[in-house]
Amino acid sequence: MVSEHSDATGGEASALALKILVAGGFGVGKTTLVGAVSEIRPLRTEELLSEAGQLVDDTDGVDHKTTTTVAMDFGRITIRSGLSLYLFGTPGQDRFWFLWDELSQGALGAVVLADTRRLEDCFPAVDYFEHRRIPFVVAVNCFAGARRHGAPDVSRALDLDRGTPVVLCDARDRDSGKEVLIRLVEYAGRMHTARLLDSVG
Questions:
Q1: Spatial CB neighbours of 171, under 8 Å, sequence gap ≥ 6
Q2: Which terms in the Gene Ontology molecular function aspect does this entry carry (predicted)?
């Protein structure tokens, strides 16, 4: 995703806009992360949890949650001059996974948010991105009262491919979320460069 804009001298300067997915299990903090880092008012498609949804949504550990994303979240953040990220938060429930294929088209990479109290909830996202060879980082959202686990422990528990970054974060904090996105852009850049070199080698 590349857009052009004029610089102060009247010439054309390239501004790079990259598409990033924010994925993970139900109630892990995807909407919170997108809202915390976005420099524009984020687009949200949240609906109140219904009694019908209680039959299919596992709310253990997130009893306080009253809404859920039913399509996507959208936000934008400028990392530096000439580099912006468009963030697409995916819905977490199984019944909305059909949207992931559309959202992942053209994505540079993804952030998989994880909650160590419900670590198994992020397995589907990890499998999805590994299977499609979409670079991703795992960001452990450090909830208050949750036992802290180091990045190596989380990496082993999720059986991640060697080199897949695991970072600790607070999805409510803009600076923390921005650091996660920077790590992803750096990692995805290295992965795409390596694949390009392999293809021509």
A1: 29, 30, 32, 33, 36, 113, 139, 141, 177
A2: GTP binding; hydrolase activity
Collapsing DSSP to helix, strand or coil, 17 comes out as strand
Superfamily of domain 17-44+70-199: P-loop containing nucleotide triphosphate hydrolases (3.40.50.300)
Contact 142, 170 (CB under 8 A): yes
- 68-79 pLDDT tens trace: 544 589 999 999
Task: Give the CA distances from residue 144 to residues 26, 68, 75, 103, 139, in Å, rounded to whole numbers and listed in that order.
Answer: 17, 21, 25, 31, 15
Which residues lie closer than 8 Å to 191 by C-beta, 6 or more apart?
Answer: 109, 135
Strands 83-89 and 73-80: antiparallel
Q: Which range, 18-22, 67-71, 78-82, has the best average confidence (pLDDT)?
A: 18-22
Residue type, 140: V
What ranges do the domains of the chain cover? 17-44+70-199
The tokens describing 140, both together, are 């452990």
pTM for this entry: 0.81
